[in-house]
Amino acid sequence: MEKVAATRLLICGLFAVLCLFSCPATSSEVEDESEFSYEEDEKNGPSGWGEIKPEWRLCNTGKMQSPIDLLNKRVQVVSHLGALQMKYHPSNATLKNRGHDIMLEWAAGAGYLQINETQYILRQCHWHSFSEHTIDGKRFDLELHMVHETEAGEAAVIGILYKIGKPDAFLSSLRDDIKAISDKTDAEENVGIVDPWLIKPSSLRYYRYMGSLTTPPCTENVVWTILAEVRTVSKKQVKLLRDAVHDGSETNARPLQPINNRLVELYKPKAYKKD
Ligand SMILES: *[C@@H]1O[C@H](CO)[C@@H](O)[C@H](O)[C@H]1NC(C)=O
Ligand SMILES: *[C@@H]1O[C@H](CO)[C@@H](O)[C@H](O)[C@H]1NC(C)=O
Ligand 2: distance of its center to the CA of 46 in Å? Predict the structure, then answer.
């Protein structure tokens, strides 16, 4: 026992030293998520994330943090944004248990989302339950984030909201792989070639605003796209994702952040009749 503990300590120490000297500053989400929690009554809970590390300070001091409530009353309906420009392709993917969430990573990228002239490469997707964004104060059961990044590290995220109902086909296709890494923090499972189109990310209407990553380091200037159409997921699927991370928490949804006069737009094609 003692030997194991000593070895662990040595390895941890080594990593700490290595990290001190070689870890580059990055806008990517933190991989080891055990350093923060979602429990408000814990010191490392959401309102204290910004005090855990200097490079996480935006979590507390940032003025354009996510998630937010998408209040239809203050949303500006626009048609100039245009339909989402996505050029995805199937790519080799790995499922990872990050301790607070399950992430599907396309290491080589799986195509891109283009906004204005910028191409944001699809890197990974992961799930939050309950949903992080709310619409008119209504919280949903699950939220999928498709995380895109440019080479320079600028991020654009597509968020998809789900309420309890029929199973989601994408999650159904990953069920056995999620089970395989269930309850094992840092476990990985190569799942082979996965086509992002299985997520069915296209939508006629979407919300757009500028925000941040919803986990430390809470990096800002993230272009958010939240699809207006709410999908369905089964209770079992939400439970599978929640049980898989086993972080002792009921949720991995960050509480709502102040909007601070930010512009929130709702894109609707001109011909769109239904409200
Ligand atoms: C996908 O990646 C895994 C792990 O890196 C590798 O073993 C496997 O051969 C790759 N599969 C394909 C189809 O490229
Ligand atoms: C896209 O371009 C428009 C017009 O120049 C600008 O207002 C908007 O902020 C840009 N959007 C993003 C996400 O860069």
Answer: 30
